[in-house]
Amino acid sequence: MTSVDALSARQIAAGIAAGEFSATEVARAALDAIASRDNQTRAFLQVSEDLALTAAARTDAARAAGEALPPLAGVPVAFKDNMNLLGTRTTCASRMLESYESAYTATCVQRMLDAGATPLGKLNMDEFAFGSTTDSSAFHPSNNPWDIACVPGGSSGGSAAAVAAGEVTIALGSDTGGSIRQPASLCGVVGMKPTYGAVSRYGVVAFGSSLDQAGPLGRRVEDVALAMNALTAGGRDPCDSTSRHCEQDFLAHLDDPIEGRTVGIIPALLQADGLAPEVRVATQAAATQLADAGAHIVEVDLPNMANSISAYYVLASCEAFSNLARFDGVRYGYQEPGCATLAEQSSLSRAHGFGPEAKRRQMLGAYLLSSGVYERYYLAAQKVRTLITRDYQQAFAQADVLLMPVSPTVAWPHGAISDPAALYLADVYTISNNIAGNCGISVPVCLGADSELPIGVQLQGPAFADARLLTFARALERACQMEGAVAPSFAGRGGELR
User: Fold this and answer.
1) What digits encode the pLDDT tens for the residues 90-134?
2) Which residue of the set 22, 48, 155, 243 is catalytic?
3) Quick check: is 193 catalytic?
4) Whole-model pTM?
5) What is the C-alpha to C-alpha distance for residues 140 and 158, in angstroms, rounded to an integer?
6) Interstrand relation of 296-299 and 214-218 (parallel, antiparallel or unpaired)
7) What's the CATH number for 2-265+397-497?
8) Could you say which of 80, 156, 243, 442 is catalytic?
9) Quick one: which of 361, 266, 253 has its CA closest to 314?
């Protein structure tokens, strides 16, 4: 008897192809795992049992007919609930879209399905991806599988929690300022933000259009690489004008040695106020482990990174205000009853459909784009973006990848941080990567000496060096021996293949 969470994506697909078990058996095991575990993690907003069993039956029929199976055949996958999938709701964890039925399937979701993945459902998130805890979900918070009293991070907290608890093998999330990497770090899984444009955003509800990027989470770097193969298959998406051709085999050089290659560290980041000592120690240890694997460690500088938080919350808020203006309760979304005029209905629908953080971001964006303010803040933020991008170009002239923390701390208890400004600082190490459009990945390296909670470190690479980034991530994973870890209280409980 094998637990489905003990198997990698490659092992699941190979086992189905060899007839060791069926895709339907894997789907039912994953559904059992969700049933036995999600009452504690609360990672899911909707479980798509019918879609999962239908997809699994299709995979089994293809094998029975002697057809070659795709690389993710039968692998259990779930999607952040800002990604459209026909047959499910897409709510963005907001009352505004509580009843919205997906009218089509997002390209990133479809490419996972085309690769044979079994869709298990939609995952919880901060409302419209505004947050770092998943506590701002309009429906319920999600819990960290390593300690259910703690947050899983956000905004892709449901995605990270579902993977860490062994409910799914791979999940998709979206990352606007760290929303894949930060929860991945807090939940002890691998989370990758691909280069901006590498993965289509078509069908992903927009937050910040110049910052958003969909990407995979898994318990292994190899699983993330397999997902990247699927997500970039077919090249540029004509439905997304920002999409770029990035199709390649991300597994081809995954296990290449890193001997003689260069890792850049930024000493000032490791001395920053607010960085927990156990995170600092873990990051320094990761540098040592990469050096032991043969990499050269060099010091580089990102002098304008200190301004990234300020620039980000100007740019992201302005783009959020523009993108969320469409949710007015007229064509779809929450509609306030009993209104006498269209203006009243639109106003009250937005007032009662959006939660506090969604309102805060839109109001800030409206102010920043107003006459007389736009030039002072928005244009200044765009200039800072140029400076940050140049800083990265200079750093990557000296190093193949950069190493830094992901989150200043490990996971914290629900409600322990209530000040919005303090929560914004949870993304202080991740935001600059989105501003520049580069690729980044969080890799779990250890449990904190003080907290005994997962700590991930971040590797960042230049634009469209995603395959290189995965090679370094795999080397670090090997050194740290955290590959495939499931939160202990969930491992082996439910989800058995019999």
Assistant:
1) 999 999 999 999 999 999 999 999 999 999 999 999 999 999 999
2) 155
3) no
4) 0.97
5) 11
6) unpaired
7) 3.90.1300.10
8) 80
9) 361
